[in-house]
Structure formats: C-alpha cells, structure tokens
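Re: the request from the purification team.
They wanted to know what the chain is likely to look like in 3D before they choose a buffer screen. I agreed to run a prediction and write the result into the notebook, where they can find it.
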Amino acid sequence: MKKFKQLNNFFHPLKTDLGFEFTPFVATINDQIFQVMEATEEDIPTLMAFETEVYHGVATWSIGKFRSELRKDNSLYLLVYHESQLVALIGARFYLKETHITNLSVVPDFQNQGIGTWLMELMIDLARQKSSELVSLEVRIDNEKAKQLYKKLGFEALFIRKNYYCDLQLDAINMVLWLKPHRLKKREK
C-alpha cells in the first residue's frame, strides 16, 4: 500500500476533480457487444470475484483498496460487461498534468480479443480530453504480454520499481506515454 501511494506524487502531486460525468454506453469490439459503465462501491463484491478469476484464485486488491480508489474524486474505474458477465476493468487517476493507469484486467476467456487495447485507447483519449501531458503505469517485470501491449500503444519504459509487488517479491517497470512534447534532463556523468 505504501508503494502504491507513492505513485500519487511521482510526476504531478496535485489532485484534480474529473470535471466530467461518465455516461454508460454500449461498444462493439471485434463484432461483440459490450456494456461500459463506471464502477461504484456497490460493485466491490463483483470486483473481488472478478479479481479472483483473473488472477487464478487470488484477489490482488482488498475490499478496502477498491473502496478507497472508488471514493477518490480524481479516479475513474470502468467495468466492461458482455451480457451479464464482467469481463474487463480499467482504472485511472487524473491529476493536473498526468493520468495514471492503476489497473487493467481482462478475464482469461476474453483475453487476446482487443478489449485491453480498446480500454487503454479509451483511457488515453480521456487523458487527452483532460489535457494530461502523459499517461503512466506500472507493469510487472515478468508480464511480457502487457509490456508488448503498452509498447504497441507508444509507452516507453522509464525505470524499475524494485520489489514493487511485495507479496510476489517482483519488480515493476514504470512506463510512460507522452501526450505532449517533453524533455527529460539527463544526468551528467
């Protein structure tokens, strides 16, 4: 939890209200119809079951973590349903100049169908609407599939967060998609 809180202060520490209302909608992805809606605290039991399915019997976030995230003024968590089944989730926090993706998950039966890519593109579009300069995220160092998705979308690896996933004793790679021109200052040796 401590490492997760550090994300808030990495690029732009100021919080901002979302400034828009999310309206549920229906989308067609690869000839399948999905319903997209904003998550609320009432969805937490469904989210816990969803996490257990996605992560093979383990919920990576607690009820308290979901509750905390869903209560934040600057957070948006979207649920994707196929018929009555929750098949995907994406979450992000919007700051003054940065959008940080906190979660992207798709149930195994719906993976490799473009849903994750579509959700990332949706969140990137929302970040642009909010005038974010960048979109950031963390990905497990051993999650090759996710790293390839993010690279395909234009994200670049910035640095490694040692032991970020404490329970698994795994590092994470911080990745960034620059939406506006930027300059990184290089250290002189």
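For the purification team: The chain has a mean pLDDT of 87.
Please add any questions underneath this entry.
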